[in-house]
Amino acid sequence: MPSLQMLFPWLALFGGFAVASSNANSPSYPPLPETGRSDLTPFSLATGTSEFVTARDGKLYLDDAEYTFSSFNAPDLIGGSQFEIEDTFRSLVAFGRPITRTYTLGVVSVNVQNSSAFIQGWDSDAQDWIYNEAQFVKLDMVLSLARKWGCKIVIPVINQDYGSQSTNWAGNWADLIQLYYGITGDNAYNESKAYDFWTDANLIAATKKIYTKLLARTNTLNGVVYGQDNTFWAIETGNELNLNMSAPTFPDTSLPPPGSWTVEIAKHIKSLAPNILVMDGSLSRSNTTENKFNATSLESPFVDLFSYHYYDVQVGQLPFYVMASDAAYVRKYGKTFVIGEHGFYPNTSSWDVFHDMQASNPVAGSMVWSLREHADTGGFVTHGEGGDIYSYHVPGWSPPTSPMFDALEQYIVGSTYTASHQLLNQAVPHYPAPWAPTILAANTTSNGTAFFQFLGGTWAEHYEVFHAVTGNVGSWQQAVNYLRDDVDAGMANFTVDPAVYGDGNGSWVMRGVSFAPLLRKGPWSNVLTIE
Q1: What is the CA radius of gyration of the chain?
Q2: 4-40+433-530 has which CATH code?
């Protein structure tokens, strides 16, 4: 494992402080007192079960155990650093079933740079897409780390965005059409509507190549072929697909894509990954259950799962109170219903009603939109959805320190965590003892006060900071008993009290603490020595 100095070259000398390595043969600090251990233990599927998640009788199973879940979408997974990816999985493994959903495979577009797109163009000579290997290597890391932590993944392969190009966050159907047919210019987006994405034989054949590229790939980190990887609990045909894509009905979003397209794509997926479930990625914005799900897809043996997305009931956008009829309709066809996204509810009682409805209806799982992770610069990645709604973080804080944290975060995380265990008829455990934090570097403020940055430990509600004088003498003394890191990325730090510690000389260490009432202590961080 590389040292902190290798990972952060500026760590050895930063802001005028000499920083002694915590790995020195002769440490310049006293022995650390005993502390707790984190419950967040990696679990390799390679040494656990070799089974895939299966669907029958309206439910999901793994090793014949019911796999009903309440969890979170994790849209940052593919673009995250290793630290951020593992923090996400450490967040999820405490839930009853560790399961999540990534975002789509990005297509180069108005808001997606070539360097971050999975699909960069169309090669007419090779008759295939131009793929970004660097992005696929990032996905290799996501799947490899998901396997390490025992977390199941679903990927919605292609994306659809609503509205103008300004909201085209990941590249969508129009971009695929433009790349394939070489449509360019200021009016390319509108010109792409002349092609029917669902029925154009050339586009269908080209689109199937994306699924082939994904599922025939061998992971460069663990050697597992994607189509044979039980880390996937499903492959989703896409994200929020509907007839918004189709001419001449554009922008009609009241119906799902044609069943012929969904079944053809599902059949192709099954030919490459026969043991991985296929989820219909349709989302028609209709209040009529029969219009939400295509009967041809429901009757197909190649499509296993059907999904819907529910959001804020106050504004009437995709309300969850129709969950019972949606789930019953899918179940009537012998298929399994899951809620791929939900959230933005205005109060705690709405969240309670949602969880009660899921528990009392044939709903195999649900995922809140969305979970964000500790940032690899300290603090957390944050994301605003509009309307004073923000992404969530474990374990959740109320009230939060940063305005970029949702006011209901603590309740939403807690109620989802509780539901994840109650759905499995499990006693709801206390939150786990947290992961160890990492102290990054020391610096000084403009007035010369010492401080250091740190990476938070997953599931820590707060931190305790200890100090020892220079030299292997004396003992560690608690400097602070309550320090939080519910702040924006790069903003997590501890400021030394100059009245007590002067310029900060000596050694510093910290540990995470879980929520009351247990206040479980996690393992120690690395030791930072300032000389």
Answers
A1: 25
A2: 2.60.40.10
